[in-house]
Records
---
Amino acid sequence: MNSFGKILRVHIFGESHGSCVGVVIDGVSAGLPISEEDFLIDLERRKGNHQKGTTPRKEKDFPIFKSGIFNGKATGFPITILFENENVRSEDYEKQKNIPRPSHVDWAAHQKFGGFEDYRGSGHFSARLTLGFVAAGVIAKKMMPNIKIEANIISIAGENDIEKGLQKAIEAKDTVGGIIECKVNGLPVGLGEPYFDSLESLLAHIIFAIPAVRGIEFGTGFKATTMFGTEHNDAIENMQGKTKTNHAGGIVGGISNGNELIFRVAFKPASSTPKEQISLNWETQKLEKFSIKGRHDLCVALRAPVIIEAVTALVLADCMLLEQKIPRVIK
Amino acid sequence: MNSFGKILRVHIFGESHGSCVGVVIDGVSAGLPISEEDFLIDLERRKGNHQKGTTPRKEKDFPIFKSGIFNGKATGFPITILFENENVRSEDYEKQKNIPRPSHVDWAAHQKFGGFEDYRGSGHFSARLTLGFVAAGVIAKKMMPNIKIEANIISIAGENDIEKGLQKAIEAKDTVGGIIECKVNGLPVGLGEPYFDSLESLLAHIIFAIPAVRGIEFGTGFKATTMFGTEHNDAIENMQGKTKTNHAGGIVGGISNGNELIFRVAFKPASSTPKEQISLNWETQKLEKFSIKGRHDLCVALRAPVIIEAVTALVLADCMLLEQKIPRVIK
Amino acid sequence: MNSFGKILRVHIFGESHGSCVGVVIDGVSAGLPISEEDFLIDLERRKGNHQKGTTPRKEKDFPIFKSGIFNGKATGFPITILFENENVRSEDYEKQKNIPRPSHVDWAAHQKFGGFEDYRGSGHFSARLTLGFVAAGVIAKKMMPNIKIEANIISIAGENDIEKGLQKAIEAKDTVGGIIECKVNGLPVGLGEPYFDSLESLLAHIIFAIPAVRGIEFGTGFKATTMFGTEHNDAIENMQGKTKTNHAGGIVGGISNGNELIFRVAFKPASSTPKEQISLNWETQKLEKFSIKGRHDLCVALRAPVIIEAVTALVLADCMLLEQKIPRVIK
Amino acid sequence: MNSFGKILRVHIFGESHGSCVGVVIDGVSAGLPISEEDFLIDLERRKGNHQKGTTPRKEKDFPIFKSGIFNGKATGFPITILFENENVRSEDYEKQKNIPRPSHVDWAAHQKFGGFEDYRGSGHFSARLTLGFVAAGVIAKKMMPNIKIEANIISIAGENDIEKGLQKAIEAKDTVGGIIECKVNGLPVGLGEPYFDSLESLLAHIIFAIPAVRGIEFGTGFKATTMFGTEHNDAIENMQGKTKTNHAGGIVGGISNGNELIFRVAFKPASSTPKEQISLNWETQKLEKFSIKGRHDLCVALRAPVIIEAVTALVLADCMLLEQKIPRVIK
């Protein structure tokens, strides 16, 4: 269940407080140059290092290649990348393991996995698993040198000014959410299929694999529900299929139409707020006040743009392979 | 690419103006009683018959069982259901086949399928294919007698009053969009997986398989981006996992938590508006005025609730089978 | 579970004594010319009409196109083909439904499907389902005009002379088995993958989907177990990879090496022998003598070459698509 | 392509002379006790340590758990197991990298992967990858405590006496092949499906993932082609479905029938023989004499029984999960 993709396939594994998190990426075109340096910028972006509101937990997060790369190039076989967990404070979690944190998966996971789940630092549910997404995304991006994927925060805590939104969080000593917009340029016409494998279906599928995502909309999105057809329709203007407007956000009938791909993603405020909360202790069966220690972000959306770019790249590269627009061997 | 599901698998086929549309449903529990009558209510709902604003094309849309049902019960083998196309006016489309309709898939499909696609009535892209979704959904619903799925229109053309929204469309002689809300009660805890097979991922995947969908949000959705963590967090109140609020919409960490599942879906205004439009004739390479004849809905969202229920049921039944909460044989 | 393939995907359905058997073939390259005539030779070969030892049940077995073909060409969408069941004598089976026929699936199916299976004429288990294989194979073959697949009977009832083997069956009034050899020429180097998707794995997988198959061997096969390495090794002779010998049968390390692909398939004698047999009546719980009425073949292997060719073509076309050696659109 | 399974899914990775080989096993029931000790016997069997004719390369082959195990039990999330490569002599291979070894994949892999493959010690094609099979098999076996899987060598170099067969190899200083028979007891009725997911299809698929396998037969196998139907048919004797004979080898119509599952697998002599051979140097384009240095087995079949048991266990456990005969959580 921890796998995604048809030709370019990604499998993630690991736990927050176990030995590592990692990813296996199968189906990468042989010959693609891959070095550790390729990963550094995106891994750094994922840390959100330079912004207020991100967690003080700082791993080195250096990618360790375990397979599939030889002489600096992809071999065409599965690429395995590990990220060691080095900076772990499990005792923070041990104390509160019987108190399911509100809006965390603790309670549901405990039911589903019978109490055998690794509860330390959310275990497999930790956002640390998105290291694997980012690493796979770096490779997917390299497979499509002419396609430009760019995600940006467009609002935090309801404010279009990121600083202002973060200030709200800092003042309230509480977590806040945000909206990320992703734009892709250079896409060929014809990616995606009608119905089950529509490009929206594939993108939405993997976007909701990112923790804290609560909504996605393409093109004009929810606002389109208030428009008339003649307002919303994008008239084709030239033989390249360029449209006058782009309410569709680059996808019609499930298929890319060559215009800019645009979608927006809603991130809720992180559940792990520094404020005192109340929950039910499932051992004592009593409500208890508690505070979440650990180290957490005031705004998880800050780290999200690079993750959204990564998973978008995975979907697009897979579609490109299916449409034979990326070769299996890169010479 | 026209398939969905892991254990309960659905394959759709057919064209709007070909001989039929249909569906193969594999993995249905043996012994499930299935009769033609089971389908009539939902098929009727899909027609949106009794509401203004739906297309005058009225097929009988009677389900023809071709396999997998014996003595009124599912055999456990693939169930094939056909819907014959009886009321076809292809000449409406023949005339305009070189003018890609704005915001329709015509242009992109022509590029992707090399001009070999059946363009009559949108061919395989026709919303008529959703007959297969509805039929499969009827069976999936029957596999989960204790789970109640209900989708309703909550706004049309930006109005919360359906009548008022439709009136806007009728007055403007233009198409309008709408928002559908789906609620599911009776779900067990533990459906869905972290990451790629999160319940949101699976639901969003199949929801975007429905034509004209532009957005989806779970629980509080996009509005959650304006809330603080302590506002948004749902505190667990009892040992059944009931939460005080339900901002999460019944899913945490990708997994159902036993509370009501809630999501909303945005439908754009249909591209086929009765108004005159302009597009590029790809033969003459000139812009042309044209009107869409055919028979079309002023508001496709009117037919959508039953389709949303159907695909939701498909996802949930598949998850239930995976979690061994539906038996493979029903005695 | 009734599906096969990655890009070229085949779904079969139907029952022997239901309304039809059929197949959905998804992923066929758009533009491929397809007419009913294309199917006639292979469908005729499947009937084994002109040979002694084949069943007197003679359906017209005419392919009815229900979707995916427009103006005589594949559209790129799912192709559905039905074969109506016209010549059904269900009463033959009704009488003996509580007596599981020896070496038939009756007993196991009854346990697995809880008695809800369609038992008439073996229902979904009927070799009549292989009509779908043959139809899909015709299309797959057409996608690879430069690849020649040819399967032939090389022994019947242990005799290398087919006539002599059949004579044994006729004299004994009993069924007999046989061995089919399949050879493929014109394959490119590089189809198949190491390990799980080795070309042998994919071929063996689908070959064992054919009823009555009990074994498969590639190249020198079981006899290779008696050879020394230096005897068995195939030395490469030229820059095209042509080998001096071909003990490998065209596959090394799971991958086609450009030499002739060769494998052999063992078919057991059909379980439905005209002779009186004994089995346990699961209603009376007593052993009973009984004879199989119905209409059956003395040697199912006679019909098998075309079925083997068909499924081989399906695997190869899927691998060719994956390796981008067949285009998605054929102009 | 390096993945297998529906609910219990296995992904393998690594290269012979890279940093490690490994496996990700997803879908393991939460709560299953797993310790390093569980692996030692089967890993030792895979080394074939105590038998003549196995390679002198001796790694420690100790399983390193990287994810999915917590407090000695499966968490229900992906289990990652690595085996470090410690004893690597790459220079043996460097010298001959332009001479494709006869009947090795060198030449075909070079074509398919464009020369980017890791050629050292056969890279990803190395039988060392079967460490992952064995490790996954240990876990699959533990999921089915009441099912007994046992594979044994039944012939070496055409001799039923293993010692005698090996003696032939040692005397000839050449490699030899062999046949392994696998028997499974305790299987429930009903595993496998008709056609594409027949139990034979699934087993054959994964058996051919093992390097050097050239054939497989179930029950009486190829010999069944010489029998009459009445000889081959297995009459059911009691209400448990026990048959008088077991020519079917425990599978009818693709489905387990509760009798002993039996199949045999043919292993060719290893391609890496110590004898001098001739091949085409693809740089000089001339035929050259050469000898394979490295460290290799005289009879790879000696290590094979435990590998066959492992992959058989993977298929059976996956089928058991699908049939809901193994719970998702083991308490």
Note: DSSP finds eight helices and 15 strands in chain D.
---
Amino acid sequence: MSNDNRASEIADRLRERIVTMRAGEKLPGVRNLSAEFQASAATVSAALSELSAFGLVRAEPGRGTFVSGRERLPEPDFSWQSQALAGARVDADRAARLGGYGTAEHIPLSWGYLAPELLPNEELHRIGSRAAKSGRSWMMTPHAGSPELRRILASEYRADPNDVLVVSGGQQGLVFTMRTLAEPGSTVITESPSYPGAILAAQSAGLTLASVPADADGIRVDRLADELERTRARVIYLQPSYANPTGAVLSTERRKQVLELAARHGVFVIEDDWARHLDIDGRPPAALFDDDPDGHVVSIFTLSKPASPGLRLGAIVARGPAGERLRASRTADDLCVAPLMQEIACGLLTSSAWPRHLKRLRTELATRRDTLVSAIRAIAPEIRIPSVPRGGLHLWARLPQGSDTREICAAAYTAGVLVGDGRHFFTDEPPAPFLRFSYGAATEAQIIEGVRRLDDILEQ
Amino acid sequence: MSNDNRASEIADRLRERIVTMRAGEKLPGVRNLSAEFQASAATVSAALSELSAFGLVRAEPGRGTFVSGRERLPEPDFSWQSQALAGARVDADRAARLGGYGTAEHIPLSWGYLAPELLPNEELHRIGSRAAKSGRSWMMTPHAGSPELRRILASEYRADPNDVLVVSGGQQGLVFTMRTLAEPGSTVITESPSYPGAILAAQSAGLTLASVPADADGIRVDRLADELERTRARVIYLQPSYANPTGAVLSTERRKQVLELAARHGVFVIEDDWARHLDIDGRPPAALFDDDPDGHVVSIFTLSKPASPGLRLGAIVARGPAGERLRASRTADDLCVAPLMQEIACGLLTSSAWPRHLKRLRTELATRRDTLVSAIRAIAPEIRIPSVPRGGLHLWARLPQGSDTREICAAAYTAGVLVGDGRHFFTDEPPAPFLRFSYGAATEAQIIEGVRRLDDILEQ
């Protein structure tokens, strides 16, 4: 290796160190650095000069080399901003919890993603590392996504590849769909309880939320019909399979009725199909999308749930002028999803590792879900389970009337357990105190220990 | 390799083939596949069974194996959608052009990104492939971005790491900032001509655009003052350094005046700092952000311009309650930027390859810009160059009065040349016919040939 390269290599290592240092902090002397890197003083000096040329350090002759700092700005005055900013649309408290994981020390009984050991890690590393070496990953794809990925995703539905718009995960798909299909100020109807990310998405899009109760068979269609009449809503948001938080699966009968209502009222149904691959006991019914030729249903697909929380990749599947509108408007928001992530999704979905992963996942989720149900029944029977979910990642549980879920979740947090406060799943006051448990992110041992600690809190 | 693994490997290869086939198409027979994959008939049959189990193919005994197709849906009726959809906010024609590259056969004289050979390819492949093997890349980072990346990006500005919000590229940063800081229906003031992506972003956010003329020193501050009075706008959008399309750099004097106006009127200035690293002749002035303690300036940073169009990574840098609002609202739109992309950005920005890349880029862009200027002056002197840009990727050129840029750009497209129609850079009628040239995406030979073909068109 030439001295030049060696100096640059040392500069690299020092750069990494400098970002963790404070402005004005002193670097070790040349002699110490020579010893550390086993390089000549000249090479170390060359490395320091390189850093100095980019303004990262400043040499003071006779004193040493210091991390550069910019001169401080005067004390800020932000008072004008309070006047300039209008009221916040998004509920910051709810937003702060979305996707939140707590610390590494917490038992994650409320995280809607898979634990690291449940990911197809080997394949992600292999496919990812291969994709990063492809030139295609570093240029752009068409705005709607790479043709290959759109073809693969279309095959998940009764869809044409042209109906598919690739996005950076389900949440982005959701808010973008709401924003594009509904006018600010108009109403979107959700089931109640509903996914907090959907509540936030509606807020972000400037929409008003109306909620309709759901039971074990999904949204109550009679009440939905009333609400459509009353609100003149143009958009319904549903999770027909393994709804978060209740785990409900919309019954075959009600699926038909929802599509009939959509046709009668001329509304869009956003089908949040997040748990498509997270079935445990038997397969879920076909997507609503597959039974709707006339473009009422817009489906949101995600890979971050079944594959990896870091694989920020999803799709909006939509037919007709609405699909065109979505694909055309998308450019204003983001030119395309990172082609590297698209390449990785293609590689994963066409690999034989994918069905193997899903099979293993099914078994693992069944075990963890059963452990959670048994633990609650054995250790904390005061927590009632209205219905055991047949898929998805969540268990919805009811506490004795009068319980304060805010206090209980805070106490759980202090005791090292993260559990979801049911309040966040309602747009208004909850009808009863609920907790949402997740069984995808914690090990069996953690689940049992988490329920034990929660029981201690409930008995206080 | 066990037979099981071998069968799965063959299934993988067939999967890749199947996505390119039509439903109902026949796969080669077992004997042919045995020969092709040099595997026993039993192994090939196992591979086909695997595909069949996942519904990808269907075996018809005695006839062969066929690609599965779903039964066709009835003829769709989308007429109801026209009633359900409100007027489009985003101008689809302008959106279709944003980031558009034409085909591989076109000479790209209008693409605002770097050509493949100008990217730091070796580093992207090396850093990307290493990052894909890290477990961190497959879980989530905090919503605002990884602490390390926020620290690195803060050091580009006089900012605190807490002021930084990592986003998926500049366009996403731009539209998200407009949407969060301005109420739908309110006015955002831009310079004229301005970046079409900003015009689309404003449309997407439901904002009204008011434009103020700019000259070689950037936006005209006297006119800006009038427009602030007239419109009561709360947001100004600017590209202070190497504005797209004109290449103008806002003068030091005017920078001060813009900040004074912002303070007097209590408005936000969105500083689109896209060309920060694309200086050619001398360094640009410090970012507006660095001279504004009170949080008027919100800067948008991007890596997709100086590093790679596929590196969809940028940042919003904002102080005070506005910064908090932006970071809190972000969760509703997207839980976090793909951690893999964040890891790659960290690796690239702290590598000694980064300053080396920027140095090489400066030289290459100078050569290509100079070639473009010389070619226009020598070959097509009827195209006037009001001012040679000292940085950025674009050259703004004026055609003889009466030229129809729509026709000229269409003829150029047919002749295999992509050039930007000046109309897209104005919100109203353009004051004169302009073309926008880009010199970052085409080789010197392509630039000369492109100008030659354009001259042929202009002389017709």
Note: Chain A is about 40% helix and 15% strand.
---
Amino acid sequence: MSTEPRQLHLNAFLMTPGHHDAAWRHPDSQPHRATDVTYFQQLAQTAERGKLDSIFFADGLAVWGRLRSNVSGGLEPLTLLAAIAAVTSRVGLIATASTTFNEPFHLARKFASLDHISNGRAGWNIVTSGSVTEANNFNLEEHLDHAVRYQRATEFLEVATGLWDSWADDAVLLDKESGVYADPDRVREIQHAGPFFQVRGPLNVQRSPQGWPLLVQAGSSEDGREFAARHAEAVFTAQQTLEDAVAFAKDVRARAAAHGRDGLPLILPGICPIIGATEAEARALEDELTELQVIDYGLAQLSNMLNVDLSGYPLDQPPPEHLLPTEQEVNGNKSRFTLVSDLARREGLTIRQIIARLGGGRGHRVVAGAPEQIADAIESWFRAGAADGFNIMPPILPTGLDAFVDHVVPELQRRGLFRTEYTGTTLRDHYGLPRPDARSTESESLLASSSL
Amino acid sequence: MSTEPRQLHLNAFLMTPGHHDAAWRHPDSQPHRATDVTYFQQLAQTAERGKLDSIFFADGLAVWGRLRSNVSGGLEPLTLLAAIAAVTSRVGLIATASTTFNEPFHLARKFASLDHISNGRAGWNIVTSGSVTEANNFNLEEHLDHAVRYQRATEFLEVATGLWDSWADDAVLLDKESGVYADPDRVREIQHAGPFFQVRGPLNVQRSPQGWPLLVQAGSSEDGREFAARHAEAVFTAQQTLEDAVAFAKDVRARAAAHGRDGLPLILPGICPIIGATEAEARALEDELTELQVIDYGLAQLSNMLNVDLSGYPLDQPPPEHLLPTEQEVNGNKSRFTLVSDLARREGLTIRQIIARLGGGRGHRVVAGAPEQIADAIESWFRAGAADGFNIMPPILPTGLDAFVDHVVPELQRRGLFRTEYTGTTLRDHYGLPRPDARSTESESLLASSSL
Ligand SMILES: Cc1cc2nc3c(=O)[nH]c(=O)nc-3n(C[C@H](O)[C@H](O)[C@H](O)COP(=O)(O)O)c2cc1C
Ligand SMILES: Cc1cc2nc3c(=O)[nH]c(=O)nc-3n(C[C@H](O)[C@H](O)[C@H](O)COP(=O)(O)O)c2cc1C
């Protein structure tokens, strides 16, 4: 056959000082650079050197985790990505932002601005926010119910896409002679009035290079999958086993097909690659990191994921079965709860062992090995239909990303699975996704109101 | 005397395609670059070449003015300034953001991020937003009352400053050996509960180089002055006459002194310098721009400022006195209403003449002349106590800023009124303002909650 094999998509999930929860104690990591823009700019340049589709920042609206024993207090992703856009030219730039604690006008505007600033490289990881500490920073004592959060997310996206389409691509006429800058008939109010939002529009940003940012989603509960199937163009997901990953991918694709969205969304499971020159070297690094874990931190993280306070229980026994809630009872991150409790049950792990297993990727797949073995781990899931690409979560930064770009990417390229050069310029180009058309516009009339 | 004379502060107010409302029709302007990040990066580099204290972007949360006849749909300032920070190293970066339509947690976080990204160059122009079209994009049919907006602004600032102080400067210990990243006793919850906001804190950004961004304010009504006197470190203001400007500066300084804030805030009136090699050349440019004005646009702007629909009234007569409301009746921009109605009355101007007079600076002072004359206009107000510096509003960009930096700045330097080199690195350094101390911290306990 002469046709090129299906191509992988690779996204670098960046987080100071790397994804292993003990990374900050390892000599290779740079936890002192949590607020240093050049640290992130250099990581993005490394990703671009590796021809990766994109980089990605997670986000939360409160101090996450116990700041006593892990890095926190870094930079807001959209602001940071604008500074990264200025020193890169191809790599996609995906920011997480919450639909629960934002207003659609602000967020639509920021993503449109980032898309202009980056010449079409913006992506949005749409999350609904899982923690009550976030709610406490936004005038709420209790968290919104999980189902309500997804209802709000749906309406939020309707408003945001309406705003992105509110300027037709050809709205700006710029006729100096006749004195017509823009055609008011090609810039429309959206007049949205729904249960969560009333937004008149239009957006105050001209239509951006990609029309809409790439829409990514990262919740895997029932509601999360349904949202992904209807709206997402790519999905980040944490999967422990090939079997679960294939089942997840099939389920999301079937749901999407039922909504007439064949071939969408792209499925991108996380993988934390612990890379050594040899397998033995990789395993030694993994062990070294496990040794450095702060057990209290791991216990707090695990308690949070399982929605139960495990402190005081024997570390060398499994978490007592009767303590664990059902997924239904969890109002935070439902899918992560289920992943972790399944993992613990399936393998009969003790609390200490679960903490070690979650250290590398908080529930994402961890693979330790030589570059070829990492490439095998990627290729096997890719060929088995579990993934259209991967969310690469280096255990330590910058070394883990350097190793991936310098040793794993060339191996994937040799296998014909990954691009050796960018073929397009926008993030949508990289993921092979079309630019949305602006929907038909209606006329509007606007009042003057500028007195600066 | 051997002591250096008091030094001027200069801020470049940047706006596509320049401040004259007909600039976009002039051949020197670049209205096609409204969403082009390199346009703004180059302007910022020009300001930095001129050793200006800062650049500044205004902002609104709706399409401003009539898009048919003026540039609109540009970029969101905070995102844009992060991209500018990446290609500059000294010039301050001031973004406007509204306290009426934002949440303090988001905004405190973005300014702290920008301050880190720029190594201490962030400033915030605090505005309360004057138009109902903005309210319509944020779930409101009516605008909040002027007084309520300022009450909200006061509480907003209390929350934001609390968040900026929530991490002590020495909170991060980074002790890899013992496994302690940050000292939880030096990162405090703010537990704010007030009529507008309930915010638990702490901020999820470490304390930034300046502690707080420079706080700028730009409303000149009674409530606006009081807010400036209590909280602002610098004030932007539109003033037509030296007499009014001196009275304004005295009033704001006296109010500030009554709150124990002697010497604050710095007063920065706007000036639109129309620069020519000779006065005749400058006047020719001014006339050329007046010729290019779109009368319908000017009429809509004027109607908006005067809070009355003037369409249909004879252009060559003054606006009918009985139509004009009182400042009390105005709920939008009170001070601009008063400035414009006073100007019209004082000089008995016709509607057409007012539109011409407002074309250059929307009510700010316009001065046409050779570089020495512009320097005279600056020096005279500076020496008379009307100003600590100026908000420079070039009529056309980039040419108007080039002319200012290449011809007016050297003249001011020759007169010993303006720096020839930056002496500090932060925006606060440039304005001679201290870095705020973090207020005393209390202990906090945080829940773990990260499952990305
Ligand atoms: C790779 C990945 C990244 C995520 N990033 C974030 C994030 O940055 N912020 C966040 O609030 N949630 C994040 N999540 C969590 C989910 O998006 C979602 O908010 C949460 O899982 C609840 O959804 P669910 O109950 O449908 O699973 C992430 C999940 C995954 C798999
Ligand atoms: C130089 C200058 C810049 C301003 N920039 C903005 C702006 O960007 N956005 C805004 O909503 N208002 C802006 N304003 C208006 C005021 O900040 C304020 O919101 C408005 O004047 C109402 O306040 P007042 O009634 O106290 O005058 C500006 C005013 C001046 C003098």
Note: Chain B touches chain A through 104 residues (CB under 8 Å).
